[in-house]
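[[Encoded backbone]]
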Amino acid sequence: VSNYAIGHFAAERVMARMCGARQRPCLVLRPNAVFGMPDLTSFRRWQLIPFSFPRAAVETGKIVLKTSGVQRRNFVGTPTIGEMICNFLAQEDIPRFTLLNPVGTTNQSIVDFARQVAVIAGKVLQRPIHVEAPLPQPSDLAAASVFYRSSVVSVQPEPLSLDAFVRQFIVLLSQSPQQE
């Protein structure tokens, strides 16, 4: 278990305690890889792969992975998360504490997502985009076997497809000054 995961779990416990003490409802969402069009004037989460890969494709013509990329991610769009929040708020009797794991319709490895971005960016930018990744190690095999499921029904298919997001985001980035 990582410090990142422990920090998130601790924050969830604090929220649950505060909501119970104050008699206020609380919804905690645990999405995996969220995508949606950001406001480039204030966006600062460039390290997240739905944003970093298209940015690297536009700015450098290549996507460089820090690992082999066999780790799997579930990509969920912001409209789906918004729908979950609206459904939570629309309940007649809102529970004090609810924890949900939003699951999108696209499950794939990081390297497959990088390749998908490279293909889309290559078509949009009309130039080749390269993907560089280290070879998988034996320790990577466990990460390759993770799949995401949820008992919570989401919009099917998502209102904003991952392909459409990547295409629109690459167009936006290619028309904007480089971001810091």
Summary: The beta strands are 26-29, 33-35, 62-64, 72-77, 97-100, 106-109, 130-132.
